[in-house]
Amino acid sequence: MLYPESMFSLGFSVLDTEEPSYIVRLPLLEDTTNIPWIFSTQDPSNAKLAFELFRTNPDANNGREVIGCGMALLASLKQAFGMKRESLHRHFTIPIVSNTTSEYLGAVTFSFIVSHPLALPDTPPISISDLWSENCPTKVVGHRGQGQNMLAAKNLQVGENTIQSFLSAVQLGTSYVELDHMPVIYHDFLVCETGVDSPMHTLTYEQFMRISVEQSDQSLNAPPAIVETECFKTPMRRKTRTRSLNACDNALTEAFMARVKHTFDFSTRGYQANTRGAFIHEAFITLEELLTTLPDTIAMDIEIKYPMLSEAEDDWKMDPYFIEANFFVDSILLCLAKHISTRSIFLCCFSPEICILLSLKQARWPIVFGNDSGNWQPSDIRAKNLQEGIHFAKAWNIDGLALASQPLIFAPKLVGFVKQRGLVCASYGAMNDEPEGVKIQAEAGVDILIVNKISMAAKIIATLEDSG
């Protein structure tokens, strides 16, 4: 929509740099989050973003005169939570005051992210053509390994995001395994196994791994504490040979679940993944353990879990702060760089800011941006609109989009719409576990299907390939 231009315009610049300034005509009424202005500075900790309000004046220099100004000290806007934490509220408002009277003229609301440089080994990038090509069949990616843990499933399920789950996925015919990490391998933002709604970033590594040990045979086989329960009237040493559940194991499992059941995530879904009793519990693992344990022939889709503001506040009821984005991304990339091999890896994230940092900091691993168009409505325009998602991906040299499967099934031509823009098209969601959903998307040429029912999807795609 076009709006009549006023006699006013707004300028942006970073002081003490040779970077050019940007000027836009007012009014500026649409959401311009997806139209970024980029500046470089040698000293980001002292970066000063200046705003100037101009009025058209034919007699003034360049045909406009400055009537108001404002300034933001960028580093000070990020200091509230310390060096390794930052607010998920990325919009900041500063006043514009008159040059002559200091009278309040208006306000500017803006968002920003600072990307700090990261030194990584000089290695050749993984070619997109090595991962996907136009003539190759759709790749099947095992969601969280062998598939997401669900109580409604009729099959015996290995704990999600575990070594055994990833190995089982390959045996069932998947091309890739998807893993979620922060930076250990875990899917959710809240760790409800603690008994409270603990955000992952509030736990130490030792605390996180202790949760897994409490459910393991190592814990069950340990000498019991001196307490009386229905199970233990007197302390007894467990035999280390058995791995089956008995009444005593059930009592310990029930006590563990009683601690978990009042947490937000459990009360919402009615279960917790990878818990002993409901599923085959496997130990929690780190990204480094996974990279060094899985054979290099197993490719990986690494989903990097970083919440958007709407996810934290609306979906998970979390406090709106998280790990500082640069520290978070650097920790993951340094771990990947430490274990570079012939393994095919691509990175996926639903956070636009994290995708920007991944693109600016490295060129080795392809990046797929998770877009929620047709799934739910996050507050960020880049994440809830397909066209805006494509624009964002092209602007930041991102290699593909991961989309909710439902729109692609109802309108298969959307797959071609994405691929014609030179982007990889991936899909996720419940309809990827329906045979017809897999068939429609595979025939439309979708590059990647992230699924729970790996064997079913692999067989359908193999059948289509044989008949084609």
Automatic annotation (TrEMBL):
Q: Which UniProt keywords apply?
A: Hydrolase
**Entry annotated with the keyword Hydrolase:** yes
Describe the location of the GP-PDE domain by residue ranges.
138-461
Coiled-coil spans in chain: none
Q: What's one GO MF term for it?
A: glycerophosphocholine phosphodiesterase activity
Q: By its UniProt entry, which InterPro entries does this protein fall under? A: C2_GPCPD1, GDPD, GP_PDE_dom, PLC-like_Pdiesterase_TIM-brl
> What name has this protein been given in UniProt?
GDPD-domain-containing protein
Q: Which GO terms describe its biological process?
A: glycerophospholipid catabolic process
For whether the record's keyword set contains Membrane, the answer is no
SUPFAM superfamilies associated with the record: PLC-like phosphodiesterases
